[in-house]
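Here is the promised in-class demo. Please do not try to memorize the tokens; focus on the logic of going from shape to residues.
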């Protein structure tokens, strides 16, 4: 997750949708349905999406709910992960999107423009601008103007920013490892491979439509 901040980042977001600073929600094909079903709708050992699917089968037995069973679960997992408190980041006074910016600068190892950061973290330009302002005020990143075009800014980590990333990253990875501990190593590898295949397809289809 965190180690893959960037094009697959992160991990940290619903696939195919630019993130904002508005927090997590249950958007997607079954988001509103999941909330309406309520936690009590699921049977013994069922997840909430299974309850949603059963309800749809009752009222519309003619439709194929196969896509809902995948996309609905992805959206639900994304919402729960985004709502969860990332303890190491919270202790460092960082939000997940802010850490994505710092992590991107650390892993690439060189200066990036705000536009490049937006593409790497799958964020809007306005969201990146807000994060950079906050991180600059904390002394974690610094900006310099381009020598040839003053309209262009280049962003880099300060020593304090680099030290903070190196300190928090192992703790955050340990936290995320705990979140995934319900799946064995084989299950995690299988899930990662399947999600990777889906992401490549979505980036090819949806990414091209945004460019």
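The designed amino acids, position by position:
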């Amino acid at each position: 997750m965190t180690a893959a901040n960037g094009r697959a980042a992160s991990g940290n977001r619903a696939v195919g949708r630019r993130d904002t600073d508005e927090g997590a929600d249950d958007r997607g094909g079954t988001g509103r349905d999941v909330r309406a079903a309520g936690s009590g709708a699921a049977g013994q050992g069922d997840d909430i999406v299974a309850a949603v699917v059963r309800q749809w089968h009752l009222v519309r037995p003619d439709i194929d709910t196969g896509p809902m069973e995948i996309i609905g679960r992805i959206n639900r997992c994304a919402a729960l992960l985004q709502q969860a408190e990332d303890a190491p980041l919270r202790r460092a006074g960082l939000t997940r999107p802010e850490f994505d910016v710092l992590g991107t600068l650390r892993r690439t190892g060189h200066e990036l423009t705000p536009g490049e950061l937006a593409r790497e973290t799958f964020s809007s330009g306005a969201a990146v601008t807000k994060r950079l302002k906050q991180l600059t005020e904390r002394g974690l990143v610094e900006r310099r103007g381009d020598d040839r075009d003053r309209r262009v800014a280049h962003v880099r980590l300060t020593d304090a920013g680099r030290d903070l990333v190196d300190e928090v990253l192992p703790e955050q990875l340990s936290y995320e490892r705990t979140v995934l501990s319900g799946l064995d190593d084989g299950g995690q590898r299988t899930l990662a491979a399947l999600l990777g295949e889906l992401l490549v397809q979505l980036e090819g289809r949806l990414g091209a439509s945004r460019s």
